[in-house]
Amino acid sequence: MNRPNPSRPPYLQDRPDRPLVKNGRRQQPIWVTATGRFPTRVDKARFYLKHTAWVPTATKDRRTAIKIVACNLRLYHRLPIRLSVEMVLKHFVPRCKSNAGVSITWTPEDVRGALHRADARGMFPTLGVSDPKARQKVIVRDLFIRVKNFIQRHTSEGGHCTPLDLRTAFIAFCGGASVTATAFGRAVASVTGLRTITPFGKRIYRGFHILETGSGVSKRTMVAGVAA
């Protein structure tokens, strides 16, 4: 069992210099940029460097630490390189000391090089990944994938049903995981490109039906559909 490395932040415990891998394929994490005008982003970056940026506790972690800081300043805070170099040297470097009390430093050239490399393909800001807006995007993406799998595996052409019937079947397909009607409706629209219709004053999906899956939701085939 791999034990956490206390000298690395929790979200970068497993080789932060490598891309995320899932099912044998490289995965680029979802991330967003900081909001606000330039002065506001500068203030956020200053606070980050002075208080919350991860500080290495050993010389061997110098490269990882400056890489994380550089990606956040360039990709999340969207600051120019010259200003970023000045801020790193002024607010971040003085905080960096090893467990033995030895200062861990970088030259202006080291910092500038890391900032230039932050724009390379596959790089991402850890602050942008942990931002609440990015987390919400992950939730939306995961729901889209589950709805897509549900429609592909358990539907066929023809029929109609209410949004409640469709959502109930989906919840059973997911093992009881809850999902709001609004979020589910948006996911269905994203997957199919279609929305509900109200031909007789009652909202329905029209175009395909849900096949009996043996999930225990119904003794019969539940008919569903997508608006034509």
Q: Secondary structure elements and their pairing?
A:
Elements: E1 20-22, E2 25-27, H1 38-52, H2 62-76, H3 81-92, H4 108-117, H5 126-130, H6 132-154, E3 155-161, H7 163-173, H8 181-192, E4 205-210
Antiparallel strand pairs: 1-2, 3-4
Number of β-strand runs: 4
Q: Give the termini distance in whole angstroms.
A: 52 Å
- Count, helices: 8
Query: How much helix, percentage-wise, in residues?
Result: 40-55%
CA-based gyration radius? 24 Å
Number of domains: 2
How confident is the prediction overall: mean pLDDT?
81
Strand content: 5-15%
Sheet/helix structural class? mainly alpha
The low-confidence runs, each spanning 5 or more residues with pLDDT under 50, are 1-22, 214-228
Q: Which series of helices and strands comes N to C?
A: EEHHHHHHEHHE
- With strands numbered from the N-terminus, the spatial order across the biggest sheet is 1-2
| Major sheet attributes | 2 strands, antiparallel
